Amino acid sequence: GRFGHDCSPSAEGMANPLLRAFAPAEVYARRSVSNVQWHVLRGEAGVVPSSEADVPGEPSAIIGRTLNPSSFEIGELLGEGNYSMVYQTTLKSTQEQFALKVVDKSKVKRYKKADEVVVEKWVLANLAHPSMIRLFHTFQDQGSLFLALEYVPGGELWALTHKKGLRPSLAAFYGAQMLDVLQYLHENDVVHRDVKPENVLVQASGHLKLIDFGTAKLVGRSPGSSESSIGAKNKWKEFVGTPEYMSPEAIDNKDSDYRADLWSLGCFLVQMIAGMPPFKGGSDYLTFKRVLACKYRLPEGFPPVAAELVTALLVLTPTERLGGAA
């Protein structure tokens, strides 16, 4: 196969929390989103009674099935990171489309990114919001971990905004969706920590989907042991994110919480309207200097109402940011 040989993890390997997170026969319960019932995730060998299998709008054949790489017809490469690649795929049995994220186990080990993979799967399996990408299935073979995700053909919001920006009314529509999904995450003690247009996909309907939860922080938990508890022995890495959108506390490697996302949201709003993030410098170092000095300019013609919101979010002291007093 294209991704290596299909095999079950060994008993020794299953002691690893990363591999335990992708164990066969993990079955997740139904969850409700806006009063619509759907399956967030079904494990490899989960059995779904026929009365539960018919969920309106759901990919039908993926629920309760055992899948492997050969179950999919692999299409174009949608994106890639340091240790993973995402492909547009078609489930052969039904011709339904998915975004298949392929995580290279050897690279995860080499770059010490096991926590990121476990956290991403935990968030997607346990939380559900209309503006979050949906996870339907996970499985693995000898060399890779696989996440069958919702396919969003509209591409990244960044492509619509880069260097040109959006009309204010559309930016307000998108901004409201981002605020809603971030509020949901924060109420569930999850900080995304990499809010940027490259991590937001646009549906054909015009609605957004937030992706890439690998750098998320679970407030009140620590990374590193089991998937269900996310452990209690390691400290979270705080210096994470994308320089142009990182909060001052993240740059200073200080303990951060949901207020870091509020800062990133301010940068996100500027990029949507102006076409460029507010603190971008000629290098990461210069960008960091601008952030720590809170030195930025909004372009001429920037909507006053949006400017007021951005100014209230881009405040160096986290507790003084709009929404940061709680």
From TrEMBL:
Pfam families: Pkinase. GO terms for molecular function: ATP binding; protein serine/threonine kinase activity. Keywords: ATP-binding, Kinase, Nucleotide-binding, Serine/threonine-protein kinase, Transferase. The keyword Metal-binding does not apply. ATP binds at K101. GO terms for biological process: intracellular signal transduction. It catalyses: L-seryl-[protein] + ATP = O-phospho-L-seryl-[protein] + ADP + H(+); L-threonyl-[protein] + ATP = O-phospho-L-threonyl-[protein] + ADP + H(+). Its EC number is 2.7.11.1. PROSITE patterns: PROTEIN_KINASE_ATP (PS00107), PROTEIN_KINASE_DOM (PS50011), PROTEIN_KINASE_ST (PS00108). It is an enzyme of class 2 (transferase). Residues 72-326 form the Protein kinase domain. Belongs to the protein kinase superfamily. This is non-specific serine/threonine protein kinase. It comes from Phaeocystis antarctica.
